[in-house]
Amino acid sequence: MRMYQGLKPEQAAVVQRAADLSRELFAKRAEQHDRTGKFPLENYADLHKAGLLGLTVPKEYGGVGADWVTFALTMLEIAKGCSATALTFNMHAVILDFIAQLGTEEQKRRWFGEVIDRGKLFSSITSEPQASFRHKFVLSTTFAPVEGGFLLSGVKHFGSLGEHASFHFVTALIEGTTTATEGQQSALVPAGSTGISVDRNWDAVGMRATSSDTIKYDKCFVRREDCLGGIAALSTIDITGFALGYSAIYLGIGEAAFDYVLEYAKTQSFGLPEPLSHHPSTQRSLGEMAIAIRAARALLREAAQVKMQGDRRETALAINESKCMSADVGFTVTDRAIRLAGGRGILRKYPLERWHRDAMCGPVMAPANDRCLETAGRILCGLEGKTLEFV
Ligand SMILES: Cc1cc2nc3c(=O)[nH]c(=O)nc-3n(C[C@H](O)[C@H](O)[C@H](O)COP(=O)(O)OP(=O)(O)OC[C@H]3O[C@@H](n4cnc5c(N)ncnc54)[C@H](O)[C@@H]3O)c2cc1C
Question: Which residue, 174, 203, 235, sits at the end of a domain?
């Protein structure tokens, strides 16, 4: 592992466990998952077996209780082996953090038990076809109050984990309200509930094995005890875990491409007397990629540390900067790596083009890089700046 100086033994052990799984198992399966678009269920079985499924579950509930630095570096290592596993695991891990922040004691015991004892997965089902996170997000999905709970109706898209999640974290507006302050409610909905249908329509250029499908809720009954937090509770907690995870993941993809092309440069000569690594143009290209990666790593580590200190404004600033940089670095390094490798770089039997396709998702994933820049700029100008906002 590169640049992991300064980690405590406990942090390093978790990151190393994830890195070993990723290198020895996930990396070997990644090409097949990408090609078939099949969700990486066996990677999740391995994460559960290794005791990592509860990465963000507090220790007192049987989880790893990872701090944010450990979380970020663990995500980065998983992404180096399998982008789709890392991206979907980020959703799961961050929702578990939301439960830790908002859940009642009974809910924490119940839902954390599902993860630790039964290996269940949680998805984050928020995006909707008629809205954008670029500005303020307007929810169309509704909770109609009925005895004992609500009837959930609406359409969500980009629902990573698709039919493989056991619980959907869904946010909607209580019928009759129009703003988050008035009526935004979140709930953990069991995936098998009547009225839920998953349209297996995910067919994207990258992150192909994430099953980020469209999910429809047709008067799906949600029990009151499955609501997480009260009205607008989501707007009161720190939700930057998502963007921190994306930062780690897209940087991890860039690093995987860099490690690969470095080895390639050291070993391939294409009939020349010396391998590519002996040519100044190759050295320069590698040097530029390495600088970008080192800088993005430093920013990622700093952002995770800032988040641990708890200042929301500073956290939003550091994480938006880091997410933007990592997504750009992931994209440009995978592109540079293909150019350095030459024509072979675009062949599907090699991993570089896959990493580049996966990295394409980074800059557009909410918070999209444009939004990250605007948020960082707002905070620097002394204005209010949030990672994501709801109307
Ligand atoms: C691989 C992948 C997995 C995902 N998984 C999940 C998931 O599990 N759960 C989930 O809820 N979501 C998920 N998402 C969706 C993601 O969070 C976003 O909702 C999605 O990428 C759409 O982005 P957007 O909401 O920012 O809007 P976009 O659809 O990207 O917006 C469209 C365009 O309009 C522009 N625009 C919109 N408003 C403004 C404005 N006010 N000013 C200027 N320009 C504007 C945007 O910049 C953009 O160019 C996933 C996305 C990807 C790529």
Answer: 235
Q: Is residue 215 part of a domain?
A: yes
Q: Measured from the CB, is residue 189 less than 6 Å from ligand 1?
A: no
Q: List pLDDT tens digits, range 147-186.
A: 999 999 999 999 999 999 999 999 999 999 999 999 999 9
20 C-alpha to ligand 1 centroid (Å): 33
Closest ligand 1 atom to 126 CA: 11
Q: Rounded to whole angstroms, how far apart are CA atoms 293 and 330?
A: 8
Q: Are residues 242 and 292 in the same domain?
A: yes
- Is 391 inside any structural domain? no
Q: Is residue 260 part of a domain?
A: yes
pLDDT at res. 2: 61
Domain extent at residue 175: 124-235
Length of the chain as a residue count: 391
Task: Work out how many domains the chain is built from and give that number.
Answer: 3
User: What tokens does 207 get?
Assistant: 């992150």
Residues of the chain with pLDDT under 50: none
Nearest CA to ligand 1 atom 27: 132
Helices (H), the chain: 9-21, 27-36, 41-49, 68-81, 83-102, 105-118, 180-183, 241-267, 280-309, 312-341, 352-364, 369-380
Classify residue 360: in a domain, yes or no: yes
Q: What pLDDT score was predicted for residue 387?
A: 86
Same domain, 280 and 366: yes
pLDDT tens string 68-127: 999 999 999 999 999 999 999 999 999 999 999 999 999 999 999 999 999 999 999 999
pLDDT at 4: 80
